């Protein structure tokens, strides 16, 4: 390299020779040369962690420093409805991007995305799945901010993320039950805490009042001190949001369907939810077709893709043929749906 530069500085001026020397310098630093150069060995330092096969992949996205973030942006305490709906909208955008996400559960400043156990997205590379889901969720949160919150975004939010693998249906259901139980415990405490603050207590006094109390004590404090019956609180705050993908007819008698992501604020710990939505745990079952959205669904996120009746029927035929071709797998999936632990 030094020799080439020296030659550029000492030769007598000649346009053709100058062009040759310039091309030699450019080729030295060009990307095509670098890709096949002696420096290429550094790629050997890269490592790729692969998610174990036949496991549900769960990506949990969690707000970083959201206590400070919510205070800076004037979020309502203990729950900000618009802020929670914004989280659900960002999660629905992630589900729209990944067809292999069967459902997503969110509460407070977190959302958990459940990938089908047989997914091969990004060849199950951990860092690829984690980075894309996290970045898409974060960017969607910022992108849809103005549609849900009237206040100006003062600084960009941050989310961390992790991947956890669950080999059986029971493990997955226990994880989601844990997150919903956590939502109930935190919301009960926060409702009591901010109820006391709004009733005239300082934050320190409210914290001391709740120290050592159990669930029944908090219910009593809310009812007697704050005139709040916790059982009448919004289900969105108490149970969190489960996003489920469904097909809904565009109109009465219409043969085309919209793919929608329906937020359900219901109990996911008991069996009823899973019995009503068996397709979430068994990929061989079709996405359910609904003629209408029930009133309990507070918000519907519509995907732009439209599916016709012919596409739905064709999909069912393919699924039926797939089931007949592998009846053993079909029975295994049915056992998994009923909450029986897998033998694998």
From TrEMBL:
Residues 317-332 have a biased composition (Basic residues). It catalyses: a 5'-end ribonucleotide-tRNA(His) + GTP + ATP + H2O = a 5'-end phospho-guanosine-ribonucleotide-tRNA(His) + AMP + 2 diphosphate + H(+). Its EC number is 2.7.7.79. The keyword Lyase does not apply. GO terms for molecular function: GTP binding; magnesium ion binding; tRNA guanylyltransferase activity. InterPro entries: Thg1_C_dom (IPR025845), tRNAHis_GuaTrfase_cat (IPR024956), tRNAHis_GuaTrfase_Thg1 (IPR007537), tRNAHis_GuaTrfase_Thg1_sf (IPR038469). Gene3D superfamilies: 3.30.70.3000. GO terms for biological process: tRNA modification. Residues 308-344 are annotated as: Disordered. Its cofactor is Mg(2+). Residues 39-167 form the tRNAHis guanylyltransferase catalytic domain. It holds the Pfam family Thg1C. Residues 171-310 form the Thg1 C-terminal domain. It is an enzyme of class 2 (transferase). Keywords: GTP-binding, Magnesium, Metal-binding, Nucleotide-binding, Nucleotidyltransferase, Transferase, tRNA processing. Belongs to the tRNA(His) guanylyltransferase family. Adds a GMP to the 5'-end of tRNA(His) after transcription and RNase P cleavage. This step is essential for proper recognition of the tRNA and for the fidelity of protein synthesis. Also functions as a guanyl-nucleotide exchange factor/GEF for the MFN1 and MFN2 mitofusins thereby regulating mitochondrial fusion. By regulating both mitochondrial dynamics and bioenergetic function, it contributes to cell survival following oxidative stress. Homotetramer. Interacts with MFN1 and MFN2; functions as a guanyl-nucleotide exchange factor/GEF for MFN2 and also probably MFN1. This is Probable tRNA(His) guanylyltransferase. It comes from Cacopsylla melanoneura.
């Amino acid at each position: 390299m030094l020799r080439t530069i020296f030659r550029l500085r000492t030769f007598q001026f000649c346009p053709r020779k100058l062009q040759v020397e310039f091309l030699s310098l450019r080729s030295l630093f060009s990307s095509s040369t670098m890709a096949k150069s002696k420096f290429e060995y550094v790629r050997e330092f890269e490592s790729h962690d692969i998610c174990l096969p036949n496991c549900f992949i769960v990506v949990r996205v969690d707000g970083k420093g959201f206590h400070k973030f919510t205070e800076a942006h004037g979020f309502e305490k203990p729950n900000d409805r618009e802020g929670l709906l914004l989280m659900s909208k960002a999660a629905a955008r992630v589900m729209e991007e990944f067809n292999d996400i069967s459902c997503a559960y969110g509460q407070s400043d977190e959302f958990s995305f459940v990938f089908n156990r047989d997914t091969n997205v990004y060849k199950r590379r951990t860092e690829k799945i984690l980075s894309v889901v996290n970045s898409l969720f974060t960017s969607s949160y910022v992108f849809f901010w103005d549609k849900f919150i009237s206040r100006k975004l003062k600084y960009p939010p941050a989310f961390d993320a992790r991947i956890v693998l669950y080999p059986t249906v029971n493990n997955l259901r226990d994880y989601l039950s844990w997150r919903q139980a956590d939502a109930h415990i935190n919301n009960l405490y926060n409702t009591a805490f901010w109820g006391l603050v709004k009733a005239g207590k300082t934050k320190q006094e409210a914290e001391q009042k709740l120290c050592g109390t159990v669930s029944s004590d908090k219910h009593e404090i809310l009812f007697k001190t704050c005139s709040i019956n916790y059982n009448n609180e919004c289900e969105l705050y108490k149970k969190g949001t489960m996003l489920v993908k469904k097909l809904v007819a565009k109109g009465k008698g219409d043969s085309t369907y919209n793919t929608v992501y329906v937020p359900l604020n219901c109990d996911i710990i008991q069996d009823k939810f899973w019995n009503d939505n068996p397709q979430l745990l068994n990929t061989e079952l079709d996405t359910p077709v609904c003629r209408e959205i029930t009133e309990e669904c507070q918000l519907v996120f519509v995907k732009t893709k439209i599916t016709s009746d012919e596409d739905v029927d064709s999909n069912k035929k393919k699924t039926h043929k797939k089931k007949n071709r592998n009846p053993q797998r079909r029975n295994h999936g049915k056992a998994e749906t009923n909450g029986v632990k897998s033998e694998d």
